[in-house]
Amino acid sequence: MNRLQGKVALVTGAGRGIGAAIARAFAREGAAVVLAELDIETAQRTAAEIASLASQTGGKTLAVQTDVTQAASVQRAVSEAEKAFGPVDVLVNNAGINVFCDPLTMTDDDWRRCFAVDLDGVWNGCRAVLPGMVERGAGSIVNIASTHSFKIIPGCFPYPVAKHGVIGLTRALGIEYAPRNVRVNAIAPGYIETQLTRDWWNGQADPATAQQATLDLQPMKRIGKPEEVAMTAVFLASDEAPFINASCITVDGGRSALYHD
User: Fold this and answer.
1) Measuring CA to CA, how many Å separate 99 from each of 71, 163, 165, 207?
2) CATH homologous superfamily of domain 8-189+225-251?
3) Where do you find CATH 3.40.50.720 in the chain?
4) pTM strictly above 0.85
5) pLDDT tens digits along 89-105
6) What DSSP state is assigned to residue 192?
7) Which residues are part of the catalytic machinery?
8) Distance CA 73, CA 62 (A)
9) What is the pLDDT of residue 80?
10) Best CA proximity match to 66, nearest among 22, 13, 9, 142
């Protein structure tokens, strides 16, 4: 408890899934948390759910409608956070979408939509908070990447291209601003039980068989929980990780280390 006491954190895509779990974990650790979410009703519900927890730990929450593909929208979210709580100490770029296409039949719109959210959105967040962090000489940015950032699954193009870019952005900014004590790191989740994962299972001809096939692929014979990603984000955001920079922590139960099934 209180590992983030006194810090102001902004989490994009915080209405559900991994983002919501991160917002809850940050509030539990005492941070003032801004839920920057395109679906404002979802963000408001999540903020209301964690309000009682936040009041117990001294943290506060605020939901702000945010379109990460629009730099001005992200900047407004940062401004709202500063107005409500003070300078942003921690940014978690979590908002993302799955765009899986055949490369040669993919439309230009599919390509642009994927990169607008999954890569441009991360840069928009970084660009909005970096000036203040650099000026204060402190800050932590955590980018939610994916095991798609270094592993390729056929049929998932162009999502892994954008996620490879997130790792490059993380490393480049981490090195660029290391002298100013601003750390930029990433987390690469593997299979995590979010609504998107459940929707994929339910969209298959036999959802139960599809789910079991996913579990059978995992070394631990289960998939991860959003809370397990969230606690990694707490660690990277806290003062417990002062010398971790330009790095990526993989949270996948060992799946990416497996040579073959």
Assistant:
1) 21, 11, 15, 21
2) NAD(P)-binding Rossmann-like Domain (3.40.50.720)
3) 8-189+225-251
4) yes
5) 999 999 999 999 999 99
6) B
7) 159
8) 16
9) 98
10) 13
